[in-house]
Amino acid sequence: MLKIVDASTRPVWDRMIQAYEYEFSRITGKEPHDDGSPPLDTELGGNVRGWIWWEDGLPAGLAAVVDHGDHREIAEFYVVPRWRGQGQGRAQAAALFDTAPGRWVVKQLVAATDAQAFWKHCLASLSCRNLSESEFHDPCWGPVARQEFDWPGPA
To answer: Is the dihedral of CA 26, 31, 35, 37 positive or negative?
Structure first.
């Protein structure tokens, strides 16, 4: 079940986003701060909303979505390793897209081959319309893969 992050679930988000950042540090090369916390790329608030995926009452994944007005972009997407390979990521993505029919953008670092494989397979198996894929150079991250599509809404 997908739920938006609120004051009661913010501590869960804060712990999960750290796990995500640490796992991704093998690709980004980011080092923790001297207090052990990782540097975060996405802060919730304003046009950025956080979501937590719950499985059997436990936090199993998260997503941060930026609302750009004419489209939404997934800034962060994470499935706890315990639930990977069981369709949870696909279900989480579909539930997330159902929150806002319309144009969506998903990006991955080219070096994040597992993330690219997940999104390619996931989007091909969902009801995405007008799916396009491209690659561009981000000044901060380097080569980035991008998928853009229209989401029709809940089936």
So the answer is: negative
Residue range(s) defining the domain that contains residue 34: 2-151
- Residue 94 CA to residue 31 CA, distance in Å, equals 32
pLDDT tens across 48-90, in order?
999 999 999 999 999 999 999 999 999 999 999 999 999 999 9
- Count of structural domains, the chain: 1
Side-chain half-sphere CA neighbours of 7 within 13 A: 0
Give 2's DSSP letter.
Answer: E
Q: Please give the C-alpha separations between residue 132 and each of 54, 70, 113, in angstroms, as whole numbers.
A: 30, 17, 18
pTM for this model (two decimals): 0.93
Q: What is the CATH number of the domain that holds 141?
A: 3.40.630.30
The answer to whether the Cα torsion of 94, 97, 103, 107 is positive or negative is negative
